[in-house]
TrEMBL record:
This is DUF3145 domain-containing protein. It holds the Pfam family DUF3145. It comes from the Bacteria.
């Protein structure tokens, strides 16, 4: 069984770019060379994106490998596959790594157990903030300027060796 997704490296210092490629290569089991372009939102930094295919869980492995560099801004998506929910992982400096399940159209899905835990812990006044945490709102706000700066950028296509 296979799935696919996208790695968006929204911003990386030039010196870290080869390490990003090595990390992605290590997870996918194939040599990866990304097309790096300037990131206008942060002069002096670069951005790249690539699609990937591999077994379910590869998105989490990619995000785990990339979080070794806390200065990176990145997102990793994994599409739903037979019996497996889709996922989105976001990382921003100062916020760390966030992940959420996604529906077929890319919406964040909040599970019943997450809602029960939210309602059981804390005061009613805390609920809006906790819902925003479940939805990854702070990560979306932090990454949106970098997403917009990447519109029209080249994409590299990758496939995991299996």
């Amino acid at each position: 069984m296979s799935t696919r997704g996208v790695v968006f490296v929204h911003s990386s210092p030039t010196a870290v770019c080869p390490h990003v490629e090595w990390a992605i290569s290590g997870v996918l089991g194939t040599r990866v060379t990304l097309q790096w372009t300037p990131q206008p939102a942060v002069p002096g930094q670069l951005r790249a994106e690539c699609t990937w295919s591999g077994p379910p869980g590869s998105g989490g492995a990619l995000a785990g490998a990339l979080r070794a560099w806390p200065m990176l801004r990145f997102e990793v998506t994994e599409e739903p596959s037979l019996g497996v929910d889709g996922e989105r992982f976001c990382h921003a400096p100062g916020l760390g790594l966030w992940s959420g399940r996604t529906s077929a159209n890319g919406d964040i899905v909040v599970a019943e157990d997450q809602l029960r835990a939210l309602l059981a812990g804390g005061s009613p006044g805390q609920i809006p903030g906790r819902i925003n945490e479940l939805l990854g709102s702070a990560w979306d706000a932090a990454l949106e300027p970098f997403r917009l700066a990447g519109d029209g950028a080249p994409v590299t296509w990758l496939h995991q060796v299996g």
